[in-house]
């Protein structure tokens, strides 16, 4: 081999991170994901302490909680495609740095406005980190079989992060002040920055044509409007209110203009032709439907456990823990299931298993049935994670390597949109089934019944103010109506999940594991011993 050829091969190996074991790279990426997943939920338990210390108004408190996921969802496509252009590792490292700075700013925020700004910066950092981890994973694991295992570990870590957030936040709040839930990010980022710079591979897309700045800003503004409108609907805001309708309309128009712009450009920001591939578009739809069911059900289940059964927040978390453990198991065994059953049967079976679990949970009533809930939550967690794993793996494998960042951003955006729509849709179904039963409770004034129809928590407050037989009757009726609404919501969710199972029939029957050949941008990395990994 000539010296020139040897040098060229060496450069390609360094660009692909060949000097580092790909499983070590996966470990670094999983730490990144864990931080972002934890930060999405860690603040929930700190809200009372933040409220007592900073005294935010109702609107400010809403923005403190919602700014991070809102900004993160809006900027995923922008930074995912920018990483394809300027380097995915570069964007990831910038995300690390920004996440650390924003965490320090949030920890020592003197007032609500500074905390909101810090949460927005955390959202920017999260939007840099999330698609970069998946797109780098796509490059480091060109063998689909190994990539499936890596995605399974990646998704299991995401499930752990979502569960660890509230537990970690509760532990820190017992021993320190509320800012510690943000401060814990800083040492991890200080380690991740040099380790990531040393071990993570740099990769880009084909680099053809200029980066579409206008298109990126249109996508960000459009997603911001749509996600904001959906979140307001999920929060019970008036559907016809200007602050709900206007963001939705403006966001939808901007996204439509973005799609039109991408179709006309010679070098589009997002290659919309990916959606012409049945496996890609179907996978995106499956992610939306799976998240739609999961987030809405988790929210309603938490209310049921605390308000109907009277469990404490810690007991509620422990009851929901089997769902997370089952999701972790499905992620770790996902690669083996995908090879054996193929994407179509795996995703469709995951949807069907989840629908069965949801129907089983309709057996929950006014009395505690721990065995029923344990069985239902285990099946729910395993089925949903099986679905999400198969959908993510199929979506990422269908995307061209040069569009890995954009594809990962589309997947994460679908995840966020599905979660927001799920809260709005299932919350509306719950309210529609819950409120009518309280319209005529014997001995309860109409005004009190109307107030109690807003939520079960408010019904308990009204019942406490009424007292006596009227209060007891209202409390009992509200509990019964909530259980009825829970059953209706579960059945609607089961229908949506079965719709997802039908949609999954468009996925490929078998998992194609042939080498990527010329499509792969980089050769397979070497393992610790230096031998070539077969693909």
TrEMBL record:
<feature type="transmembrane region" description="Helical">
    <location>
        <begin position="317"/>
        <end position="335"/>
    </location>
</feature>
<feature type="transmembrane region" description="Helical">
    <location>
        <begin position="242"/>
        <end position="259"/>
    </location>
</feature>
<protein>
    <submittedName>
        <fullName>Multidrug efflux protein</fullName>
    </submittedName>
</protein>
<feature type="transmembrane region" description="Helical">
    <location>
        <begin position="280"/>
        <end position="305"/>
    </location>
</feature>
<dbReference type="GO" id="GO:0005886">
    <property type="term" value="C:plasma membrane"/>
</dbReference>
<feature type="region of interest" description="Disordered">
    <location>
        <begin position="516"/>
        <end position="535"/>
    </location>
</feature>
<keyword id="KW-0046">Antibiotic resistance</keyword>
<dbReference type="Pfam" id="PF07690">
    <property type="entry name" value="MFS_1"/>
</dbReference>
<feature type="transmembrane region" description="Helical">
    <location>
        <begin position="58"/>
        <end position="79"/>
    </location>
</feature>
<keyword id="KW-0812">Transmembrane</keyword>
<feature type="transmembrane region" description="Helical">
    <location>
        <begin position="116"/>
        <end position="137"/>
    </location>
</feature>
<feature type="transmembrane region" description="Helical">
    <location>
        <begin position="23"/>
        <end position="46"/>
    </location>
</feature>
<feature type="transmembrane region" description="Helical">
    <location>
        <begin position="413"/>
        <end position="434"/>
    </location>
</feature>
<feature type="transmembrane region" description="Helical">
    <location>
        <begin position="175"/>
        <end position="199"/>
    </location>
</feature>
<dbReference type="InterPro" id="IPR020846">
    <property type="entry name" value="MFS_dom"/>
</dbReference>
<keyword id="KW-0472">Membrane</keyword>
<keyword id="KW-1133">Transmembrane helix</keyword>
<feature type="transmembrane region" description="Helical">
    <location>
        <begin position="91"/>
        <end position="110"/>
    </location>
</feature>
<feature type="transmembrane region" description="Helical">
    <location>
        <begin position="211"/>
        <end position="230"/>
    </location>
</feature>
<dbReference type="InterPro" id="IPR011701">
    <property type="entry name" value="MFS"/>
</dbReference>
<feature type="transmembrane region" description="Helical">
    <location>
        <begin position="484"/>
        <end position="505"/>
    </location>
</feature>
<dbReference type="GO" id="GO:0022857">
    <property type="term" value="F:transmembrane transporter activity"/>
</dbReference>
<feature type="transmembrane region" description="Helical">
    <location>
        <begin position="347"/>
        <end position="364"/>
    </location>
</feature>
<dbReference type="GO" id="GO:0046677">
    <property type="term" value="P:response to antibiotic"/>
</dbReference>
<keyword id="KW-1003">Cell membrane</keyword>
<keyword id="KW-0813">Transport</keyword>
<feature type="transmembrane region" description="Helical">
    <location>
        <begin position="370"/>
        <end position="392"/>
    </location>
</feature>
<feature type="domain" description="Major facilitator superfamily (MFS) profile">
    <location>
        <begin position="25"/>
        <end position="512"/>
    </location>
</feature>
<feature type="transmembrane region" description="Helical">
    <location>
        <begin position="149"/>
        <end position="169"/>
    </location>
</feature>
<dbReference type="InterPro" id="IPR036259">
    <property type="entry name" value="MFS_trans_sf"/>
</dbReference>
């Amino acid at each position: 081999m000539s010296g020139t050829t040897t040098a060229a091969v060496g450069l390609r190996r360094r660009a692909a991170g060949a000097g580092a074991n790909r499983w070590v790279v996966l470990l670094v990426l999983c730490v990144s994901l864990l931080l972002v997943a934890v930060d999405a939920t860690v603040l929930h338990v700190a809200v009372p302490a933040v409220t007592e210390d900073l005294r935010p108004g109702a609107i400010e408190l809403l923005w403190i909680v919602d700014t991070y996921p809102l900004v993160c969802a809006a900027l995923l496509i922008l930074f995912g495609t920018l990483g394809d252009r300027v380097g995915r590792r570069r964007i990831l490292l910038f995300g690390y740095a920004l996440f650390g700075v924003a965490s320090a700013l949030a920890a020592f925020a003197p007032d609500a406005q500074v905390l909101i700004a810090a949460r927005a910066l955390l959202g920017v950092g999260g939007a840099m980190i999330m698609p970069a981890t998946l797109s780098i994973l796509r490059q480091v694991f060109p063998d689909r079989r190994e990539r499936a295992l890596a995605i399974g570990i990646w998704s299991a870590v995401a499930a752990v992060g979502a569960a660890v957030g509230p537990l970690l936040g509760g532990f820190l709040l017992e021993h320190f002040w509320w800012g510690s839930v943000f401060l814990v990010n800083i040492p991890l980022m200080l380690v991740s920055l040099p380790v990531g710079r040393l071990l993570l591979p740099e990769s880009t897309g084909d680099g053809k044509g200029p980066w579409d700045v206008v298109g990126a800003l249109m996508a960000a503004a459009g997603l911001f409007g749509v996600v904001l409108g959906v979140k307001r609907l999920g929060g019970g805001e008036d559907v016809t209110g200007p602050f709900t309708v206007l963001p939705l309309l403006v966001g939808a128009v901007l996204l439509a203009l973005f799609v039109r712009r991408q179709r006309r450009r010679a070098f589009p920001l997002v290659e919309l032709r990916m959606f012409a591939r049945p496996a890609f578009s179907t996978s995106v739809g499956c992610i939306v439907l799976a998240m739609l069911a999961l987030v809405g059900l988790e929210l309603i289940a938490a209310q049921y456990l605390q308000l109907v059964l009277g469990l404490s927040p810690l007991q509620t978390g422990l009851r929901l823990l089997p769902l997370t453990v089952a999701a972790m198991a499905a992620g770790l065994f996902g690669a083996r299931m995908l090879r054996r059953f193929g994407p179509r049967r795996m995703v469709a079976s995951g949807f069907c298993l989840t629908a069965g679990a949801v129907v089983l949970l309709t057996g929950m009533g006014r009395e505690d049935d721990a065995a029923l809930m344990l069985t239902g939550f285990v099946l729910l967690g395993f089925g949903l994670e099986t679905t999400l794993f198969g959908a993510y793996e199929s979506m990422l494998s269908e995307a061209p390597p040069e569009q890995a960042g954009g594809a990962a951003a589309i997947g994460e955006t679908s995840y966020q949109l599905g979660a927001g729509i799920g809260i709005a849709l299932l919350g509306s179904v719950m309210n529609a089934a819950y409120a009518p039963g309280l319209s005529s409770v014997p001995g309860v004034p109409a005004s009190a019944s109307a107030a109690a129809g807003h939520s079960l928590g408010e019904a308990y407050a009204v019942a406490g103010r009424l007292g006596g037989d009227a209060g007891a009757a209202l409390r009992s009726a509200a509990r019964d109506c909530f259980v009825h609404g829970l059953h209706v919501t579960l059945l609607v969710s089961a229908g949506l999940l079965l719709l997802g199972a039908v949609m999954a029939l468009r996925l490929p029957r078998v998992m194609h594991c042939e080498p990527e050949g010329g499509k792969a941008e980089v050769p397979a990395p070497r393992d610790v011993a230096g031998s070539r990994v077969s693909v």
